[in-house]
User: Fold Thymidylate kinase from Colocasia esculenta.
Amino acid sequence: ENCHWDNSRGSLIVLEGLDRSGKTSQSNSLVSFLKGKGVPVEAWHFPDRSTTVGGMISSYLANKSQLDDRTIHLLFSANRWEKSSLMETKLKSGVTLVVDRYSYSGVAFSAAKGLDIQWCKAPEEGLIAPDLVLYLDIPPEKAAERGGYGSERYEHLDFQQKVASHYTNLHDHTWKVIDACQPAEDIEKQLRELALECISSRRDGKPLSR
Ligand code: DGP
Ligand code: NA
Ligand code: NA
Assistant:
């Protein structure tokens, strides 16, 4: 039975995890499920490679350009900022956004290069805060076994191990940690329940926070 989702803002639901944690297929599956329930919802993904800034990020990830660590950090952040007013408009109009990666990726991946964590967090301050972060937890070694990494810059086991250790320091009250080594259907089921619970509780009118 579909619920009535009107009169409430949308939820900002973020999926995080290492490369090859299954995030992208899980977020697509979650969005299809929510659409089927009548929830106004869109799938988003950062980095958004379709913008000018996103093109620079994409070229960097493909090793086609070199940028210093702080420069690329700020570009990833700018890529979230350039979408933030659209994000706000969508959420306020009642659309739930399921976002594959957000500020936590920004901090975990740059901190893995040795950059200071507070410095990494600073440009993220003021972005819209997620209502729910679904962390797909997988040991880096297991992720590496999953058909191997692609050829992008960060897709190496030693780097992913560092990213994993930084992610564990970023958990806050909005996080739910899901064991990503479970069968895909079990993960799907848990994500669906958590997302529906989050969306229903938005009807209490909790405002967006930063
Ligand atoms: P994806 O398109 O989700 O596969 O992400 C591309 C790669 O970029 C992936 O290795 C994760 C990494 N990444 C995503 N967001 C950020 C960010 O904000 N900062 C940094 N340094 N890396 C990021
Ligand atoms: Na990737
Ligand atoms: Na991905």
